């Protein structure tokens, strides 16, 4: 599960960009997209993640949903639930009815889903590619390239709605031949959230085994 979270958070983190030699058209679109999400107190998204690697004959799909408010998030995917209040992280595994508690300490290079739309100002160069259609909707395609040549990712392709500047999908290309696509299926701005949304309530999980790793 930690590997999946790292993959997801790395994927969403790739909305990053470097300050120099940037494409102004792409930069304007990214600024508009970022402003849209930063204006929200919270949001909830249902997504599909597709992992492909032709050489390894791999194509895997999974779906999930995530609720984000500030630096806090609640992620549900593949029978597991990750709750993060910015300091403590709970990882609940439904099949085992077990929850692991740990201090939230992002690994180097790992970015929280809470930062998904605010990280395009450092680490990547961006360029405008073209206008296209995605699920019948007009989108602007923007590509990001890492400044660090040691980065295992060599390209990220973003699809931003021309109509409302929402991020429709992003595709991460890695040097090992794998491609990961995150597609937003449903989006809800400003869902109702409170302190309980981003904390694990043991009373709601009857008989849960608690493993405190702090």
TrEMBL record:
Keywords: Lipoprotein, Signal. The keyword Ligase does not apply. InterPro entries: LolA/LolB/LppX, OM_lipoprot_carrier_LolA-like. Residues 1-22 form the signal peptide. Gene3D superfamilies: Lipoprotein localisation LolA/LolB/LppX (2.50.20.10). It comes from the Bacteria. This is Outer membrane lipoprotein carrier protein LolA. It comes from Hymenobacter roseosalivarius DSM 11622. The lineage of its organism: Bacteria, Pseudomonadati, Bacteroidota, Cytophagia, Cytophagales.
């Amino acid at each position: 599960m930690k590997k999946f979270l790292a993959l997801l958070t790395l994927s969403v983190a790739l909305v990053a960009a470097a300050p120099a030699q940037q494409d102004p058209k792409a930069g304007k679109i990214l600024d508009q997209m970022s402003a849209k999400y930063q204006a929200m107190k919270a949001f909830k998204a249902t997504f599909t993640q597709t992992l492909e690697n032709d050489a390894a004959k791999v194509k895997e799909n999974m779906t999930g949903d995530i609720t984000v408010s500030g630096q806090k998030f609640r992620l549900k995917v593949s029978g597991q639930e990750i709750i993060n209040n910015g300091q403590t992280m709970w990882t609940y595994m439904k099949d085992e009815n077990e929850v692991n508690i740990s201090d939230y300490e992002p690994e180097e290079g790992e970015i929280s889903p809470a930062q998904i739309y605010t990280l395009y100002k450092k680490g990547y160069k961006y360029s405008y590619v073209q206008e296209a259609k995605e699920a019948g909707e007009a989108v602007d395609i923007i590509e990001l390239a890492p400044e660090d040549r040691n980065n295992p990712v060599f390209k990220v392709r973003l699809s931003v709605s021309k109509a409302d500047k929402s991020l429709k999908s992003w595709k991460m290309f890695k040097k090992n031949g794998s491609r990961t696509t995150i597609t937003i299926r449903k989006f809800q701005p400003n869902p109702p959230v409170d302190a309980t949304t981003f904390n694990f309530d043991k009373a709601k999980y009857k008989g849960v085994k608690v493993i405190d790793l702090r």
